[in-house]
Design goal:
The protein is globular. 20% of the residues are buried. It is α/β, with parallel strands linked by helices. β5, α3 and β6 form a beta-alpha-beta unit.
Length: 168
Amino acid sequence: REAKFPEIRRPRREIWIAPTLDDVRRFKAEYIDNSPRLSVDIETAGRAITCIGFAPSSSIAIVIPFVRSGKNGRNYFTNPATERAAWDIIREILNDPRTKKTFQNGAYDISFLWRAYGIKTINADEDTMLLHHALYPESEKSLGYLGSIYTDESSWKKMRKTDTIKED
């Protein structure tokens, strides 16, 4: 498939990376509420979630940050009530039994969400790390590695200009 074209062809994706609370509400209403499946991934630092991502399809996703790096302060949401409202939306999404959720290393993410934030995940259905491990137990299981094998994406974590996401 790749040999048919001289150039590298990347898939078209829309990723919301700096959403306002209204953006989070709108994304949920337009893309998540009626989605039968949702990919979920969290990034952590210590005992905090630095961001959480939701992808109802391969063409659109949202990343909700909670940590702002640099001189602007630590919290992405500058008002505690706004951050609490964002967490309430995340809780609604993860508590929705109608939507099947796919994780990468879901045992970690689901237990972290419960232990640190009291957020219960309903209908966790698949785990890409475990599915890959069942097929190829001898190979790596990181999301970066799986992305390099199963997608046409470049190494996305190296493209970021922030330290809020850990390296694989």
